[in-house]
Amino acid sequence: MNIALIGQGFMGRAHSNAYNQVAHFFELKHRPRLKLLCGRRADELRTMAARWGWEETTTDWREAVTRPDIDVVDIAAPNSLHAPIAIAAAEAGKIVFAEKPMANTLDEARRMAAAARGVRTMVWFNYRRVPAIAFAKRLIEEGRLGRIFHYRATYLQQWGNDPSRKSGWKLEKAVAGSGVTGDLLSHLFDTALELNGPVSRLSAMQTTFEAGREIDDAAAVMVEFANGSQGTFEATRYAVGAVNQNRFEIHGSRGMVRFNLEDLNRLEFHDATIDAAEQGPRSILVTAPAHPYGTNFWKPGHIIGYEHTFIAALGDFLRAVERDEEFHPDFGDGVAVQSVLDAVERSAASGAWTTPEKAGV
Ligand SMILES: NC(=O)c1ccc[n+]([C@@H]2O[C@H](COP(=O)([O-])OP(=O)(O)OC[C@H]3O[C@@H](n4cnc5c(N)ncnc54)[C@H](O)[C@@H]3O)[C@@H](O)[C@H]2O)c1
Question: Domains of the chain (ranges plus CATH)?
Answer without folding.
Answer: 2-127 (3.40.50.720), 129-304+314-330+336-349 (3.30.360.10)
